Amino acid sequence: ATIHDQKLHRGAGGELHQFAEDGMPVLTTAQGGPVSDDQNTLRLGARGPALIDDFHFREKIFHFDHERIPERVVHARGYGAHGYFETYESLAAYTRADLFQRPGEKTPAFVRFSTVAGSKGSFDLARDVRGFAVKIYTQQGNWDLVGNNIPVFFIQDAIKFPDVIHSVKPEPDRQFPQAQSAHDNFWDFITLTPESMHMIMWVMSDRAIPRSFRFMEGFGVHTFRFVNAADESTFVKFHWKPKLGLQSVAWNEAVKINGADPDFHRRDLWQAIQSGNFPEWELCVQLFDQDFADTFDFDILDPTKLIPEEILPVKPIGRLVLDRMPDNFFAETEQVAFMTQNVPPGIDFSNDPLLQGRNFSYLDTQLKRLGGPNFTHLPINAPKCPFHNFQQDGHMAMRNPVGRVNYQPNSWNQGPRESPVQGYRHFPAEEQGPKVRLRPESFADHYSQARQFYISQTPPEQRHIAAALIFELSKVETPVIRERMVSHLSNIDETLASKVGHALGFKSMPKPADAAMPTRQDLEPSPALSIVEQ
Ligand code: HEM
């Protein structure tokens, strides 16, 4: 065929559309060059060596070789969907955040659900915390509410995050177990970190094996602030309540599903949305002030504590509907970059030491994972409101300033300009005190809410918690670690402790853990411990 035989068409802009012999668009290289043969490399004779002139082969393989980016260091396995957030009523009295001003207004959103510990290719029904990360593209910039399906966290201070995550991930020498918490390193860390006891009770409960993403709650975990136009602050805790209610699977079901269909949760969300069965959550808030916070014997800055809904009922303020799957998993779900520090004017942080650490960590991790400072240029991360700044250059820059001006103030009368009125104002909280590394006394009680959670469960749910503890601890090979866990359980519920101790073969019960337990202990079993199999 000669060039004259090809079907050519010029578009409105003069661009050349080329069609292959069967009418499909012509395959091109990334540089736009049309490809004649995508099946055979260029060779010297049909049976001869390959030639380096084959730029099409080299470009195709080069691009394939670079397809992978690092998986997330946590929450590697995730699944996302698009949708919108709809505001129920004006919250102007509490917050000046634009998305909460006008009843009925819809704001686009993207959500990524995830497991925490497993790698990208792990199974969906692991006993694990589920991430519930929401990006709302507001008219004042993106708001990321990066939450979990459990309302509290393992640790009180972000400085411990690398330790808790290292302990739950596969052990560094043997590189197992994958995607589960049933191993010595995890329980070693947990039992040396009594502040994790409340979260552990949730993780051992049915909450950690949800039936699907559509039947999960979500929580912002930390105390945040709403700030209104008069710069008045109200503390706020965020909750997502699924319209379908809360459902989990039983452990034996989870084990079977993991084997039969490791993509169970993905498939469920895909099928629901593709068939028009759009899942919904209500965004609910607990609103309170400092005087109310002072009535508790725990600290509202402590992320291992929740405010019981019986004491402070949640108020629904809007709904989230997921109605569209991504066109491309990598472009959207894999490249989406959530960051707790993304807040619009009217939403602010508290001094929760876990939140403060997260506000540093997420930007740092996105730079590494997405390869440079321009990840906000990706469509999934870009704001959907007008935005203007003088940031320029760097790898993959797609939005450099146009014209002469790339700084401000300037004499050329060119914007953008800062605005003390429209711009983000941090709540001017009064702070003072010595510079110290010190856990506040108000963070000291690690057992009351763990107990409260356990006794709030129905008898079958309590049995599931006991069975989960027995299963998980039976995988722990080091006797003193099992003993330490049972000694913590004694501080939570005596019956639960003795049930677990008995099933693990203890002849006598270890004494209850010291609530002010030092975090470093030697690994010698206490004299009280005796184990049948020894
Ligand atoms: C990722 C939640 C604590 C560092 C995530 C994701 C969620 C999440 C949902 C996945 C986001 C996605 O789907 O892309 C939480 C919650 C926490 C918590 C609810 C406590 C209340 C922390 C802390 C740190 C941390 C204390 C570090 C100091 C990270 C990192 C990622 C991540 C590095 C990976 C982000 C990425 O590569 O995209 N977290 N997290 N998280 N989190 Fe957290």
From TrEMBL:
This is Catalase. Coiled coil: none annotated. Decomposes hydrogen peroxide into water and oxygen; serves to protect cells from the toxic effects of hydrogen peroxide. The lineage of its organism: Bacteria, Pseudomonadati, Pseudomonadota, Alphaproteobacteria, Hyphomicrobiales. It comes from the Bacteria. Its cofactor is heme. One of its GO terms (biological process) is hydrogen peroxide catabolic process. It comes from Rhizobium johnstonii (strain DSM 114642 / LMG 32736 / 3841). One of its GO terms (molecular function) is catalase activity. Keywords: Heme, Hydrogen peroxide, Iron, Metal-binding, Oxidoreductase, Peroxidase. Its EC number is 1.11.1.6. The keyword Oxidoreductase applies. GO terms for cellular component: cytosol. Belongs to the catalase family. HPII subfamily. It catalyses: 2 H2O2 = O2 + 2 H2O. Heme binds at residues 72, 112, 161, 358, 362, 369. Residues 28-416 form the Catalase core domain. The active site is at residues 75, 148.
